[in-house]
Amino acid sequence: MSLREFLVNTKNNNAFLYYLWSKNQQKKGLDNLAHFSDKEAIEKLYLNYSGKLPNLVQPTTFSEKMQWLKLNYHNPLMTICADKVEVREYLKRKGYEQLLNNVHAVYDKAADFNAATLPEKFVLKASHGSGWNLICTDKRKINWWIWKKIMNVWLNNNIFWPGREWPYKNMKPRLVVEEFLKDVSGSLMDFKFFCFNGQVRFIQANKGRDTNNHAQNFYDLDWNILPFGKDLEPRPDIPIDAPTKLVEMITIAKDLSSEFPFVRVDFYEVEGQIIFGEMTFYPKSGLPDFTPPEYDGILGEYLSLPQENQYS
């Protein structure tokens, strides 16, 4: 395990350290918002991550096109679909209410959160966040005093500030509590469908995420492993079974993504039933993390950009 992985794991397994980290992220985001324009913030983020500036005039790679979309493509439907509460109405309108996980509660304020009214197991999420969540398997073992402080940080933070991910800019911050789910793996595997201009091009699947033998593989639509990864090298030595409802998932992902130049649509499969996860417009803020690096350019060819400022 690398030092970075050790520090991340330590932070994620200690609520007080996670609170301090969250406060620091909030402060850095506010500083970023105060001192940099959208274009400057995007260029700074990209440069700090990759050591080079993105071409925002004639973008060709996937990551450059992601940054271009942040600046130039502002479809109001994106804000609805990225919101973990509002997206439920979008799915209902599209005829997919049966894919929605059960919601126990939605809160506007952390002070309103009351664990006593909730089941023993549940998942707490910030409706306007990414990775801002708590998987609770025994509410009696949680220090709710520190977690309410964390919830307050979530509610006063915004993903738009550091990376200028436009859909989150004016999103209403809320807390949502969903039913705890578990699949045949003993945890909950998600299947991430990368959709370009309404077509599913490939699927990401993870296995052993919280172990030392973590596999993150990408597959084509026939579930053949692909020769690239994202953050992690592919692990052909660790096969990941396709979901039994793969074909149906592909069809639904195509439909849900049809309004957008790019979106990643995530599903779970629990007891043979498809459960909707979320829609993500800029995975890892659209930074160049495909490996080998040349796939940033190869996959960029899949994405046709819309007319500039068509919703501005």
Automatic annotation (TrEMBL):
InterPro entries: ATPgrasp_TupA. Pfam families: ATPgrasp_TupA. This is Teichuronopeptide biosynthesis TupA-like protein. It comes from Flavobacterium glaciei.
